Amino acid sequence: MQICPRCTHNNFDGVLVCDQCKQPLNNNISLATRQMRTVLDMDDTPLPSRNPTPVATLISHGTITIELEDVQQPIVIENQGRILIGRASSRSARVPDVDLAPYNAFSKGVSSLHASIFRSDECLNISDLGSLNGTYLNRECLTPHMGYALHNGDLIYLGQMAMRVYF
């Protein structure tokens, strides 16, 4: 049995999150975000658009498309007002709407809850959620918890993970 450090509930062995209070259990092995030591080379745009016609003209206005570097299939998600982007982690009960873990997000310095895309006053915005390795929008480092306007085809870095966003 595993005892939760928060509520002292007895949980079965192998459980990652307390059944009662949803606190991550201390004895699990997790992948905490590691701070990246290398600096991004922001002089080059490593992720040119692969589409001669912007994706935004090919999809409905209710979706957002994210193209990742070296990934053929884009990620298409419904625009739900606020979208959390990061990577699933055994350390956190919170799961992002866009899970970048399958794309080597940990090795590229993406936090479990790294950034948020949200609609405000008919504009689509992005905000860094206090990530360890930062969020960059078209070579500009974002101040955490502040909204920045997004435009079709903008280049975004989450840590060292490059992507383009279309809506």
Give structural notes.
A hairpin with a 2-residue loop joins strand 9 (135-137) and strand 10 (140-141). This protein has strands spanning 2-3, 10-11, 63-68, 75-78, 82-86, 98-99, 113-120, 123-128, 135-137, 140-141, 148-149, 154-158, 161-166. Helix content is 0%, strand content 32%. The protein has two domains: 1-29; 55-166, Tumour Suppressor Smad4 (Sandwich). Mean pLDDT is 81; it is low at 42-46 and 50-60. The protein is mainly β and 167 residues long. The strands form three sheets. A six-stranded antiparallel beta sheet has the order 4-3-13-12-9-10, with no helix packed on it. A five-stranded mixed beta sheet has the order 6-5-7-8-11, with no helix packed on it. Strands 1-2 form a two-stranded antiparallel ribbon. The protein is built from no helices and 13 strands.
Summary of the model, kept short:
This protein is mainly beta. The protein is built from no helices and 13 strands.
Set out the fold topology.
Blueprint: E1 2-3, E2 10-11, E3 63-68, E4 75-78, E5 82-86, E6 98-99, E7 113-120, E8 123-128, E9 135-137, E10 140-141, E11 148-149, E12 154-158, E13 161-166
Parallel strand pairs: 5-6
Antiparallel strand pairs: 1-2, 3-4, 3-13, 5-7, 7-8, 8-11, 9-10, 9-12, 12-13
Order of helices and strands: EEEEEEEEEEEEE
CATH class of the largest domain: Mainly Beta
**Oligomerization status of the protein chains:** single chain
Low-confidence stretches: 42-46, 50-60
